[in-house]
Amino acid sequence: MAERSFASEVLSLRLGEGEEFRGEGILAVTKALLQSGVAYVGGYQGAPISHLMDVLSDAQPVLDELGVHFEASANEATAAAMLAASINYPMRGAVTWKSTVGTNVAADALANLASAGVKGGALIILGEDYGEGASIMQERTHAFAMKSQMWLLDPKPNLPSIVRAVEQGFELSEASHTPVMLMLRIRACHVYGRFTAKANQRPAFSSADALAAPSRDYGRIILPPSTFAQEKQKITERLPAAQHFIASRGLNEFCGGDADVGIVLQGGLYNGVLRSLELLGCADAFGTSALPLYVLNVTYPLIPDEIVRFCAGKRAVLVIEEGQPDFIEQSICQTLHQQSGTTRIIGKEVLPMAGEYTGDVLKPGIEKFLERWAPALLQAQAPAARREATLVPSGKLAALVPQRPSGLCIGCPERPLFSAIKLVQRELGALHISSDIGCHSFATLPPFNMGNSIMGYGLGAAGASALTTHARGRAVAVMGDGGFWHNGLTSGIGNAVFNRQDAVTVIVDNGYSAATGGQDILSSRAPPKERNANQSILNAVKGIGVKWVKRVHTYDMRETLAVLREALTTGYDGPKVIIAEGECQLNRQRRVRPLFKKAVAQGERVVRERFGIDAALCTGDHSCIRLSGCPSLSLKENPDPLRTDPVAHVDNTCVGCGVCGEVAHAAVLCPSFYRADIIYNPNRWDRLLHAVRTAVIGALQRRAERRRLRFAL
Amino acid sequence: MSATPYKLAIAALGGQGGAVLTGWLIEIAEANGYFVQSTSVPGVAQRTGATLYYLEFFPRASPAGGGREPIMALMPVAGDVDCVVAAELIEAGRAMARGLVTPERTTLIASSHRELTIGERSTMGQAVSTGAELVEIARSQAKRFIMFDMADMAEERSSVISAVLLGAIAGSAVLPFRKDAFEAAIRKGGLAVATNLAAFEDAYQAASAGTVAVPKASSPAQLPGALPTDVKDPKLRVLLQRLRALPPGVQSLALEGVRRLIDYQDPRYAWLYLERLEHIAHLESAHAGATSDRPLTAATARALALWMSFEDPIRVADLKTRAARAAGVRTEVRALPGQLMNVTEFMKPRVAEIAGTLPVDVGRRLLNSAWASNLLGRLTGGRRVRSSTVSGFLMLRMIAGLRRWRRGTLRYEVENARIEHWLVQIQKTALSNLALAVEVARAQRLVKGYGDTHERGWRNFLKLMEQLEGLEGRTDGAAVLARLHEAALADEEGLALARELAANVVPHTASPTRTPAVNA
Predict the structure, then answer these.
(1) Three-state SS sequence of A613-681
(2) Do A406 and B46 touch (CB under 8 A)?
(3) What letters, b where the CB count within 10 A reaches 16 and e where it falls short, cover A106-123?
(4) Using CA atoms, how far apart are residues A155 and A191, in angstroms rounded to an integer?
(5) Residue A177 burial (C-beta neighbours within 10 Å; 0-12, 13-18, 19+)
(6) What is the rounded CA–CA span in Å between residue A166 and residue A94?
(7) Residue pair B343/A651 in contact by the 8 Å Cβ criterion
(8) Which phi-psi region, left, alpha or beta, contains residue A508 (left: φ > 0; alpha: ψ -120 to 50)?
(9) Does residue B411 sit in helix, strand or coil?
(10) I need a labelling partner for A520 at 20 to 30 A (CA). Which of A121, B343, B359, B397 fits?
(11) Do B262 and A711 touch (CB under 8 A)?
């Protein structure tokens, strides 16, 4: 069950010829796949392509009707290997993941796929997680395309262009027998727009056709001498075929005016570049540019003839290429040099080598280029737009604006785990903590500030390998259930068993691939009927040979703390695994909240739990926040006129998970915390009990009150 | 609209419903003949962090467009945004810091409420930004500025802030759509329609009136005003007389102290408080001469009252069993009138706290006996006391009843000795360096909390007191101690304090021209 329901999006997958599709870019891709007669789809979730996986997961009936095979792959390597079906058969296949992390994982299969070449169109849809909002290290997918000789599409970020890129991608792949990568930046994946749909197509060639008549060609096997032949084919046959297709079908676009300077740009940057030109007075809002533009909807391979043609007669050309190294700029320079062209190529000279090309980066870069090479264009048209506004310096403002990093959600089951790790460090000293990818990565941020390295998804345990010798103290590795099934079971746990590591690994079992949007995984408790889940992490860990394995419920901090302490101090020197269970609260609330409301409405006796703090007892030290950091645990003005520090306060977003009380207990914090159990639809027994209690307690309270009144000053 | 799209950015936090608001705006625009594009960056960045939604609008019927759809950008460019909608005050500041708000064209619609950041929440003292400076900047930076507490407004209508934001956008008339077009989108959404429409309407009215409601000024709890003219109880009357004898500027602080200590113990305890305070007041009067400022007496009045009402289990039990507290809990957790409710207290008395509540000798013997401490340690543990049950309440009342023997408890003896030593230090220091003595009085703030927190605070307090000898003769002594005070509150691990201490080991000869003489 993903974080969101995609029921309405699934409906738009059924749109027929000529109907208008409205929605997100990544969902337009989903529809485009069905329109292109795709036979199979696989992938691994991750922003910004999670919604593609989510909507297809919810769309099983539509896929069944069309005969399309869909898998939520175990990892990106699995997804890439799935494309093997297109090596021997004219089956169209598509896979998707977050790049470059997923591409790294898939690289082995991709390289072999690219070497073998494909018969059916093979499309790899990549969510390029680069720039603002990215959650991974910053790299480009471009290098993968170059090193394996796959083609890279980088279409203009509007729905018709993206859909066209999917359709043309399959054709290009088939025309050149090469897998094609379609890269979409974060915002392009989430851009809301429209396109005119076509009817879905059943795959022309299905897996049934393949299995009925298996086909084999030794030339497609990754062993010598085939591999040597394949390496030559890439250059002598597939590359020219691709370049011919791209040029003859006009995949790249030439537009704009006829000035003697021009701009070459990646298709994905088109809207940003056009907006900058508009602001500089060199274009209108509809894409009519005074400067000639050469839009690379295919960024690899480049088409030398087109480059030469575009540069002919131009004094200077600006190459706008996001990220580093500047592959495109280098390649254009080489092409022109070999053709003895005289056009001056400008690129990273006026634009930054690294980082996202936002409007705030593009505009000054283009302006600098124009100031030097075409000042007339700039001065003639843009005096108003270029006026500098009188603004408060952003530095002064930034100093007034505290950072707001991401963090664990309200009631997150991972919070008490990290509180416990913080407490165990108080007892046993600082630990080396090898972190992993997932929501638990947020433990590296305030208030937990723990974790020494992150090596990749599922690699938390492996990242501690060199530190598991029998030295003083033990390193702790953290791994999520998502990472565990992705590869951690073998790369981390199996490796620790085989190498007799004296390691402690905590597997965070929240029941979902939570950070990517709450998708189901192998150990999810209530899977949809299309999948087989509910598999035990405990059994898997035992099965691979771990002797010391304990399961704890993270909300029981006393137990968690005891097990952590034991794992860190036991004489047993083999790998120790702690499975820390606690259901993702986002998913849990989505499930539980409607049930609660329904029960209240139906008159059933239900209890709502909520935590609170006695402001009169809180002394304003905020230890509780440093140990938990729950967003519902905030501050308010101290009601005591003698005290100045604000007091802690539980706001109404509290879901009553109980961590506050546990933390206050385990850390011997303070007695200010209380839990209120609010009873809906009380029964007779409740009412009777309440009446008795109120009578007795009320009498005692009134007595104490009288004494206080006597001494009221 | 000119021949360029209208640009609107929504600055929000993950979980505030920015996506819902964006969905409504798209629905409204498309239903009213507009091209619209939106983008956002979901994913992990959204989990409680700051996030930005961006929309562009363009009329299909624009003669300049001739039916063509313009090229719309996927993110805002500084200085090129027509409307910024901020779902929280600091997020309005962040949008301004990005240059999205400019005086020539930007309407800034902001909620004045604060959602505190983890940095603000986790300090050991006070680091909460009121955003007052941001509000002032917003007034000059935005072409139009609309602000009110939208979280509050949503709350009042049992709605969500996204509905209020939509109402504010509609009311500000930045978009060329009629009010009923906005309402239609809410109805079409089909969820919580009635409450959302009510919240929308409130916000519509507030925004169309151009409301700029400055955030509720942080109103620290008020000290009592003038002293009461008379009281009946003879014990109180004498206290009142002594209060009148104090310098006028500190009377209300001292009154609050007296009230607190009567509440904590009895009038006799308040008498002791005033006696102690008078010593300091006399000493300061001798120094102060003509001025009526009494910084030392004021600081001591505050700190002494807090220290003398140290938080022992007796106090905790007393406060948790009061009628007013039970009522407070009901409001806090929003129990409906008449709704039944049980309350569970999370208490974890440690051996030290239990020993502290015992008579001096017994308590001390307990602490000195390893086996007895161990045994008790095993028996205590986390206690969940159900204070709404008769047995739980009686237990707490019993502990609260130990008040009458408090003066004989070990904890009282320890705290009383510490207080007296501290008062001596204040007086001694005041003779040579009054400003430093004020800082000594203020240092009581470090000793707060329970258990480990209290012990850490006490250790830090002692570290500060160790510096007194070296600081007494220094003109910047008070400033140094104040710095150490802040450093002690900077981090739990004591890193900042250690750094600050290391920097101040060698008494440097401060140039009097740089550091104003603060000696009295």
Answers:
(1) ECCCCCCCCCHHHHHCCCCCEEEECCCCCCCCCCEEEECCCCCCCCHHHHHHHHCCCCCCEEEEEEEEC
(2) yes
(3) bbebbbbbbbbbbbbbbb
(4) 13
(5) buried
(6) 10
(7) no
(8) beta
(9) helix
(10) A121
(11) yes
d(CA A402, CA B97) in angstroms, rounded, equals 11
Q: Searching chain A, which residue's CA lies closest to the CA of residue B4?
A: A285
Maximum separation of any 2 CA atoms in chain A, in Å: 103
**Contact with chain B for residue A270, Cβ under 8 A:** yes
Cβ-defined contact of A285 to B77 (cutoff 8 Å): no
- Residue A202 CA to residue A651 CA, distance in Å, equals 53
Distance CA B373, CA A543 (A): 45
List CB contacts of A288: < 8 A, sequence separation 6 or more: A256
Question: Quick one: what percent of chain A has pLDDT higher than 90?
Answer: 82
A211 touching chain B per CB within 8 A: no
**Judged by CB atoms within 8 Å, which residues 582-611 of A form the interface with B?**
610
Burial B39-62 (b: 16+ CB within 10 A, else e): bbbbbbbbbbbbbbbbbbbbbeeb
Q: What is the ipTM of this complex?
A: 0.94
How far is Cα A500 from Cα A693, in angstroms, rounded to an integer? 60
Q: What is the DSSP letter of A439?
A: G
> What values do phi and psi take at B280, rounded to 5?
-65, -40
A550, with CB counted inside 10 A (0-12, 13-18, 19+), is middle
Q: Is A233 on the interface with B (CB under 8 A)?
A: no
User: Is-contact A506 A578, C-beta < 8 A?
Assistant: yes
What percent of chain B lies above the pLDDT cut of 90?
74
Put residue B221 in one of left, alpha, beta given phi > 0 → left and psi -120 to 50 → alpha. Answer: beta
Contact call for A687 and B335, based on CB within 8 A: no
Rounded distance between C-alpha atoms, residue A266 and residue A323, angstroms? 11
Does pLDDT of A672 surpass 60?
yes
Residue A664 touches chain B, beta carbons under 8 Å: yes
Give the A:B interface size as CB pairs under 8 Å: 372
Q: Are residues A359 and B348, on separate chains, in Cβ contact within 8 Å?
A: no
**Cβ count within 10 A of residue B164:** 31
Q: Does A707 reach chain B within 8 Å, measured CB to CB?
A: no
**What is the total residue count of chain A?**
713
Return the beta strands (E) in A39-162 as ranges: 40-43, 69-70, 93-99, 122-128, 151-153
d(CA A80, CA A104): 11
Report the distance separating Cα A615 and Cα A639, nearest Å: 7
Query: How far, in Å, CA of A349 to CA of A372, rounded?
Result: 12
- What are the backbone angles phi and psi of residue B488, rounded to the nearest 5°? -65, -25
Indicate yes or no: CB of A677 within 8 angstroms of CB of B342: yes
Encoded amino acid at A219, one letter: G
SS (H, E, C) B258-290: HHHHHHHCCHHHHHHHHHHHHHHHHHHHHHHCC
pLDDT of residue A379: 65
Beta carbons of A272 and B116 less than 8 Å apart: no
**B401: enclosing H helix or E strand:** helix B390-401
> Could you read off the pLDDT of B294-332 as tens digits, one per residue?
999 999 999 999 999 999 999 999 999 999 999 999 999
What is the Cα–Cα distance from A382 to A229, expressed in whole angstroms? 57
- List the single residue in B26, B79, B340 with the smallest CB-CB distance to A389: B79
**Closest in A389, A645, A666 to B126, CB measured:** A645
Alpha carbon A73 to its chain's center? 16
Residue A398 CA to residue A400 CA, distance in Å, equals 5
DSSP-derived pairing of the beta strands A122-128 and A93-99: parallel
- Give the residue on B whose Cα is nearest the Cα of A134: B45
pLDDT of residue A384: 47
* Residues B352-381, mean pLDDT to the nearest whole number: 85
